[in-house]
Amino acid sequence: MLLRKRAWDIMNEEFSTIEDSASLAEAVRSLRDSMKEMPDNHIVVVKKKNGSLRGVVSIWTLLKAVEDMVLKDEDLTLTEEADWDRAFKRAGTACCSASLDNHIEEDVVILKPTDPMLVVLEIFRKKKRTWALVQEGGNIIGVVLLSDVYREVTRDLVQQF
């Protein structure tokens, strides 16, 4: 099974994309919308204006961006008197206009559609990533998530139990 199945067999062809000129708020909205259909998904593919790949924005980079904006609040101190709700609201407002530039992960894992599951699994393990992009002819055609790999690998194991 690990040699028979390929990346194209388990990739998700429906995935969220945004342009690199988008705001942080647009990335958050795009990821939330995507997670309604695919709860395991936690990335948005970021493309340049010409359609080529720029990178991804992950749930981790988005959470870090929100955290950084909350912690930048001058009125906020780590005391009980701090108004965290107000600070979070201001951070949300700041996110609406913040640029996506500083939050794009450009070091992405790229798979070929014909990569066998064994290679996919090894790449995930070595790179310590929970996602990879599938590229063919310079275009991103799908996304493979760690949960997809797990389901495939354990499908036959569960039957053996």
UniProtKB/TrEMBL annotation:
Transmembrane segments: none annotated. Residues 11-74, 104-160 form the CBS domain. Pfam families: CBS (PF00571). InterPro entries: CBS_dom, CBS_dom_sf. PROSITE patterns: CBS. Keywords: CBS domain. This is CBS domain containing protein. It comes from Maridesulfovibrio salexigens (strain ATCC 14822 / DSM 2638 / NCIMB 8403 / VKM B-1763).
